[in-house]
Design goal:
By secondary structure, the protein is α/β, with parallel strands linked by helices. The protein has 9 helices and 7 strands, in the order H-H-E-H-E-H-E-E-H-E-H-E-H-H-H-E. It has a domain of about 160 residues: Rossmann fold (3-Layer(aba) Sandwich). Helix 5 links the parallel strand 4 and strand 5. The longest helix has 11 residues.
Length: about 240
């Protein structure tokens, strides 16, 4: 798994969304045993911090030291620099495994083997992601063109797994359930433009061309947006299963 997010770790920690309480309520309702959880590809630790309120111990891994440097410290969270497919955890010791907005970057077969190795019988596995932001009829066409047109050559092919809600990524677990949620925020145009700068495609473009591609749409977007904050909506999809 390549590290695509270290260079924008500070922006990522500030401008990426967090997840709604309803998502965590859904997870916890399906996880009766709450001794140890693993948040895989934890990034800046936002999911790990929430899980730490409900579990005795949380293990949180990421391949990016820069991302982990932005993560909050808690007495019952241990952060590890580790790939998803090979972890330092003992076999059959985890009650919950979570992956937020990252499983599309993994070697799916190797990751699923590792999950089966380290999960307790009956443990819960939950993977989720969020699709392209939705806003207003005057802004959505501009953002769709930037996402699927201007940036298309700079997205890794794995990114398109988000668009079909992981339908092509194996999920070899039992009692599979699917759920959908929404994240709604009120952002200024400046905040939204900085969110775009967290995209891996934007970082790749900037490395190749030496300029910020967000500036290609900044003026038009700012004019359409206006001075006020606007509501932005992120559709969140989740799949959950049990390890036997």
């Amino acid at each position: 798994m390549l590290d695509r997010f270290s260079s924008q770790a500070e922006l990522y920690a500030r401008y990426r969304i967090d997840y709604p309480p309803e998502l965590y309520e859904f997870l916890l309702a399906h996880t009766p045993q709450r001794h140890r959880a693993w948040d895989c590809a934890t990034g800046n630790g936002q999911v790990a911090v929430v899980l730490a309120e409900h579990f005795e111990q949380v293990e949180a891994t990421d391949i990016s030291k820069a991302q982990l440097a932005e993560a909050p410290q808690r007495a019952n969270i241990t952060y590890h620099v580790s790939p998803a497919e090979h972890t330092p955890f003992p076999a059959a010791t985890l009650d919950l495994i979570t992956v937020g907005q990252a499983v599309h970057w993994f070697d799916a077969d190797a990751f699923n083997q590792e999950v089966h190795r380290i999960a307790r019988p009956g443990a819960t596995v939950a993977e989720w992601g969020y699709g392209l932001v939705q806003m207003h009829e005057t802004l959505d066409p501009l953002i769709r063109q930037f996402y699927a047109g201007t940036m298309r050559p700079y997205w890794d092919e794995n990114r398109w797994h988000i668009d079909d809600a992981y339908a092509r990524i194996p999920f070899p677990f039992e009692a599979v359930q699917h759920a959908q949620f929404e994240v709604r925020r009120h952002w200024s145009a400046e905040w939204f433009l900085n969110y775009l700068r967290t995209w891996s495609s934007v970082v790749k473009y900037e490395k190749q061309h030496g300029q910020d591609p967000v500036l290609l749409i900044a003026d038009e977007l700012t004019q359409l947006w206006g001075a006020q904050e606007r509501e932005v909506t992120f559709p969140v999809f989740l799949r959950l299963g049990r390890v036997e």
